[in-house]
Amino acid sequence: MDWTTPISTLLGAVVGVGSTLLGETVRSKRDRGQQQYELRRQLYARYLEALTNTDSELQLLAIREQTPLDEADLRAAWRNHSLLSLNYEIALVGPPSVADAADTAYRSLRSMRNVLGRAEVTLGRPGAPEDNTPGTAEWHGAHRAYIDAMATLRSAMRADIGNGQRS
Fold first, then answer.
1. What pLDDT digit, counting tens, does each position of 108-165 carry?
2. pTM of the model
3. Which residues contact 49 (CB under 8 A, 6 or more apart)?
4. Do 77 and 51 contact (CB within 8 A), yes or no?
5. CA 25, CA 127: separation in Å to the nearest integer?
6. Do the Cβ atoms of 158 and 41 come closer than 8 Å?
7. Are 139 and 121 in contact (CB under 8 A)?
């Protein structure tokens, strides 16, 4: 009996199935990478939005109300944007550089909130006449730390997801 034909057929089948499996594995890995990229990109955008909206809400409160602000008002403004849960989410899916920067931005914003709750602050331009108000220098320091933390966070996020899609 000639074994050449069955062996050739079997070998062809193994090569065909193997190449199909390899192709599917590569495609699956690429798809998972794309899904991870999209997840991080959307999460980062939501977190930046939540930080910015919370900052704006806190400053609006400080402009409308007399400082130090009421604790209940501060907590309401703070909880409106799910900052802590987004921060935890970034810690789960982001690399350590982004997670650390996200936590620093969160803590900086919380420091600003705390200044507004304990000190008399007048919001305005640095160096303006209203800067004589007690607590205003502390506010400007806390706000500067937040702005710097946000710049660092955006830089870390850009480094992680890049400027375009990953494949």
1. 999 999 999 998 887 765 555 555 566 788 888 999 999 999 999 999 999 999 865 4
2. 0.77
3. 81
4. no
5. 61
6. no
7. yes
**66 DSSP assignment:** P
pLDDT tens digits, residue range 42-83?
Answer: 999 999 999 999 999 999 998 888 889 999 999 999 998 999
Tokens representing 158 are: 């850009």
- Using alpha carbons, select from 113, 39, 30 the residue that is nearest to residue 71: 113
Whose structure tokens read 């810690």? Answer: 91
Residue 45: what residue type?
Answer: A
Distance CA(33)–CA(41), nearest Å, equals 12
Q: Residue 106 pLDDT > 80, yes or no?
A: yes
Of 107, 103, 85, whose CA–CA distance to 156 is shortest? 103
**DSSP tag of 123:** -
